[in-house]
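Service request form, structural biology core

Requester: graduate student, group of Dr. S.
Request type: structure prediction, single chain
Budget code: on file
Notes: please return the result as structure tokens.

Sequence provided:
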Amino acid sequence: MQTYAEKKIGRQSVILEKDIMLVSAAAVAGPKESLGPLSDAFDRHYSDTILKEKSFERAERHMLEEACHLAVGKAGIYPEDIDYFIAGDLLNQVITASFCARGLAIPYLGIYGACSTLAEGLSLGTMIIEGGFAKHILIATSSHNSGAERQYRYPTEYGYQRPGYAQWTVTGAGAVVLGAAGEGPRVESITTGKVVDAGIKDPFDLGVAMAPAAADTIYNHFLDLEREPSYYNLILTGDLGGIGMKLNEDILASKGFNIQHNYADCGTLLYYPHQKVDAGASGCASSALVFLGHFYKQMMKKELRKVLLVATGALHSPTTFCQQETIPGIAHAVSLEI
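Core staff response, request fulfilled:
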């Protein structure tokens, strides 16, 4: 049995002793996402954003519940076999995840990492299983364009003008079952991010707000584990979009790490250019759909063997924006191998 000192590597990282697998994954997508280049990778496609529900918030809950049931079913187990449900979303008091937990009736830990929630959930779930406190953990997250825009900016019905550097909040949900045994990508190591504030105040400019946090986490991951970017087949950030992605590349290059040859961002992969999403995708479901829908399947086929998933989040709120606070960023990294 390893000791704490042996599992903790450097300042921010941990190495896992046990084989903790992403046993199954599911991704369900909204109408705009279902028309994008990754459409074939999703388990469900919705033709509208309301899903016959009474509100966009209830529609988001519907998506999250469906993703959870699909992931559990794919794992060949039942909800009662899940020890913990760890989930979060973008809405105030993580209401989507909490109301979903009400229906699942699984011991629940609600988390908030904004768009970094998937990687945060994977990190926490992995460490719980590593500690011997669980056998199966369900991790899930979601976002909804109309719900998030109504909360953070302006209701879409207003028809407001979006700046070209803005990003489009993804409508969708993803869920993954972590297990102490089984098939699937193994969580090899985790690097927990620090909050980094670049001084950005514009809630449309989230890619630039989050990029310094992504660069900081990736840089410290390389330092802690004494790795070069070439160690990975793919380094995947969550939702920096085209502008934030380039800034992340530039910051890391200034620190001596060139990631251009094996780097991609979920925010640039989810939509076609003609779908008019400006700088790309954002939202919790950005990394959920792209990784759990697309790249997870590539790992299962062994087309990718080593992936560094770095989900990014903007930790502001409508209240802090009105108080003219800056937008802190966070990024958490999970190294996956198969």
